[in-house]
Amino acid sequence: MRRSNIWLWSAAALAYAFLYIPLIIVVVYSFNDSKLNAEWVGFTLSWYVALFNNQEMLTAARNSLTIAVSASFCATILGTMAGLAIHRYKLKFLPVLVFTPVAMPEILLGVALLLFFLQVLNLTLGMISIIIAHTTFCIGFVAIIVRARLQGMDESIFEAARDLGASPWQTFRLITLPLIMPAVVAGALMSFTLSIDDFVITFFTKGVGEPILPIQIYTMIKVAVTPEVNAISTLLMLLTLTMIIIAAKLDSGVLRREAK
Amino acid sequence: MALLEIHNVTRRFGDFTAVDNVSISIKAGEFFTLLGPSGCGKTTLLRMIAGFDLPDSGQILLDGKDMVGTPPEKRPIHTVFQSYALFPHMTVADNIAFPLKMAGTTPDEIRSRVREAMDDVRLSNFGNRFPQELSGGQKQRVAFARGLVNRPRLLLLDEPLGALDAKLREEMQIELINLQKERGVTFVFITHAQNEALALSHRIAVMNQGKIEQLDEPSRIYGFPRNRFVADFIGKISIMNAQVLETAPSHLTLSVAGLGEVTAPSKEDVKVGDTGVLAIRPEQVRISHHAEEVELKNHFIGKVQGFLYVGDVTTYIVELPNGARIEALLPNSAPGRAKFFEAGDPVAVSWRHDAGTFLND
């Protein structure tokens, strides 16, 4: 191995260690048979059992799943439409307007949405307000992914469909939608993962009644970092990781195969 | 009656006039080619015929019916795109079946028509393949089959052979001629490759800067280019400044500075004293040894400047006493010989009195 290679590999190893060691520790301690996150005592699944007996935690998980599914559903439809429009009408300001919420500091978006719900819509904060808020910041992600896929495609395919007798709607249903489907699904999965672990915006737009998973976890560690928190974090990590891997596979693999 | 009539069609994009008052009438069964350099307006014209764009003024009539309000999917016109534009998520069979499905053809009929279409382009066993599993030539044939399967009144072909290598291109040209003859479908073909246009078409419209420079049969376009643009664009041609000395019903007598009198075929609208150029094709120029007896009227002495050997023929560049250069083409009929003259050789060049053409400035 050449000298430069060694350096490159060590740099990469360091970066990955930096990223993943904290996560690995959480996972390892979720199986630790001790109430303290200090030393390894023995393997147990009791924290997971405790978790599934924790009624409040289960409600929080159910609420979070409901929000994530609804928000990613709405964001996927709106984001796909936005992606198509941005691609079609090559206007400069349109993409910027859709992508801005993606780059905006979350705290800003949280405050803005809170004010909007309370003062403009006169909405009682609750599940609905969280779903709307999550939809807002997910649209941009879906639009970016869908648009990227459209940009890699031969424009004449859509004209060919019209030319061969398909109406605009048939062209969308039979050609455009199947071709952008991997990006749409990837966008939906991305939205789901963004929604399920969002803290800041959820914190601003939630009501008083219902527990939401990330906030519930935060409330628990205010008392102490129990292995139960490690267990729920591990599960959340597993879910997110699965979705991101599927999304990445869909967005790159299928794209490479079909763009040829 | 003409199948397709284009009446005074103009299309502008801002200040740029892409198509400038073009009129063409295309007969049923014709293989018609729009030939021109990129940016000459041929693609814009094609898109207007297909329905992807509309003229700013003028009319496009198909079977005497104005197409202005008819969207692309309602026009009995199909297009073969330069990029083939096959649907990547559909098999070859589904691609070919697409126009039939859109037209509401029954499933049984679709099956038999698709099979027939695949046989026609020699892709019978490729029905279940996806486009990305095909070679360039195979994709091209699928695109032809898909364009023809629903028997359009008109098939538009947008530089369909542009992406193929030279050998395959020639094969596809022959295939295309046969396909058009068998089906009797009218073809409107666009290309910037002049040899392709000459080889394939019944008639050619040479376009430049949005206008039609000449509309004629291939042999007339090549043999009697109407102006310098057409002469330059189609094939190789040598050009010399000339002035008309005398006009006769059978021929023109031209004066070429530093060379003397040259006889050229007569032409309408040419008056004594007109200035312009004499244009002559390399294959019409005979090249012979300096001392040889030449019986042709137009013959001059020159010196070989250089040559270009391309295998079957060699082009000799000959400098005339007036400094003008003329190209002469000689087939390499003697086996193993790349050239018959060396650079620097004094030679005689000559051409028939009915060869060459005078082009006014």
Describe the overall structure.
The complex is a heterodimer of chains A (260) and B (361). Chain A is mostly helical and 260 residues long. Chain A has one domain (31-259): MetI-like (MetI-like fold), CATH 1.10.3720. Helix content of chain A is 80%, strand content 0%. Residues 254-260 of chain A have low confidence and may be disordered. By secondary structure, chain B is of the alpha+beta class. In chain B, helix 2 (92-102) runs parallel beside helix 4 (136-148) and helix 3 packs across helix 4 (136-148). The mean pLDDT of chain B is 90. Chain B has two domains: 4-229, Rossmann fold, CATH 3.40.50; 236-360, RNA polymerase II/Efflux pump adaptor protein, barrel-sandwich hybrid domain (OB fold (Dihydrolipoamide Acetyltransferase, E2P)). Chain B has helices at residues 42-50, 92-102, 107-120, 136-148, 166-183, 194-200, 218-223, 228-233; strands at 4-13, 16-26, 31-35, 57-62, 65-66, 77-80, 154-158, 186-191, 203-208, 211-216, 238-247, 251-256, 260-265, 275-280, 286-289, 298-309, 313-319, 325-331, 346-351, 357-360. Chain B has a six-stranded mixed β-sheet, with helices on both faces. In chain B, strands 13-12-11-14-20 form a five-stranded antiparallel β-sheet, with no helix packed on it. A five-stranded antiparallel β-sheet of chain B has the order 15-19-16-17-18, with no helix packed on it. In chain B, strand 9 (203-208) and strand 10 form a beta hairpin. Chain B is built from eight helices and 20 strands. The interface between A and B is medium-sized, with 20 and 25 residues.
